Amino acid sequence: MxxxxxxxxxxxxxxxxxITLNRPRALNALSLGMVRELMAVLLDWQKNDQVLGVAIRxxxxxxxxxxxxxxxxIRFLHQAGTVGNPQxxxxxxxxxxxxxxxxxxxxxxxAFMDGIVxxxxxxxxxxxxxRVVTERTKMAMPETIIGLFPDVGGGYFLSxxxxxxxxxxxxxxxxxxxxxxxxxxxxxxxxxADQQAGxxxxxGAQSFASGAAVQQWVESKMIASGACxxxxxxxxxxxFSLPDVPTIVAALEGAGDDWARATAALLRKRSxxxxxxxxxxxxxxxxxxxxxxxxxxxxxxxxxxYLRPGQSETLEGIRALAVDKDQSPRWNPARIEDVAPELVxxxxxxxxxxxxxxxxxxx
Length: 363
Description:
Elements: E1 2-4, E2 8-13, E3 16-21, H1 32-46, E4 53-57, E5 59-60, E6 63-64, H2 74-83, H3 87-103, E7 109-113, E8 116-118, H4 120-123, E9 130-133, E10 138-140, H5 154-159, H6 165-172, H7 178-183, E11 189-190, H8 196-203, H9 211-219, H10 233-240, H11 245-254, H12 258-269, H13 272-285, H14 290-306, H15 313-323, H16 341-346
Parallel strand pairs: 3-4, 4-7, 7-9, 8-10, 9-11
Antiparallel strand pairs: 1-2, 2-3, 5-6
């Protein structure tokens, strides 16, 4: 059985539901239609006893694998946010509900995280029961580059990385590879990229006694991933445990080594306001369960577009990166040191009473 739309291909092959994200020219960036398609097929397979597990992959211009998912469709977000299209509200509500479903799917959900895995791509893979990376994996939560924050449950899964790695990844938006992803608890195992196609085909061709057997079989094919690439773990913990963003940046700028100075320079390019918001997000999320974190992030993303009409950091960040492509966002406030604490706290006030929250049903 194959269900094909333009952007999502869902096939029941043997005892495994196989999903291919099929929007390669956009690096499989998630549209509202894709979110709805994924939700519908997963809800169907969740209650179908014939489906023992689910596997998901991306595609590139040449075929399967190569690029998992580069995030949400930021051009849509810019257009919708600029004209007040209510589908922007639907997109975030439904995307976060999809993220929650994946974390609580109840059957093996195996994510083949080959190539680019960023933003919304992390949202549909971090809840997987098995997260498989390759030598081509480029993983990041780069939202501060566009004046946003690491959403899709980013507060939840980044805050659970070792030490202060979560703060570093969330604030800097830095990209990591397979070995670091495994070391930082953002992936479970390594598979050489050229072995994915054979494994994928075999998944749908053989008989399994249970869902657990499906996952164990994939796990048996994984190999050691090599050495960690990030050699600055001690420095990450030292600087990113400091109490606030100005203190972190001042300490990095005052250090004598290249890594610290380069990291400070990177942070200076991000939205100053959103750096403050993101640090607060990650630290609040450490004590939250996933549902509460997603509700918090739903509040935050509403404020990213509507808290300051005409002054959205997110619309400005997307404009500079993807619309006008001048790479010169006009952040407001312009400096890390000029962000008022009261403005930061407004991002964490819910615009809804608890009973009317768009994600009230999440448990």
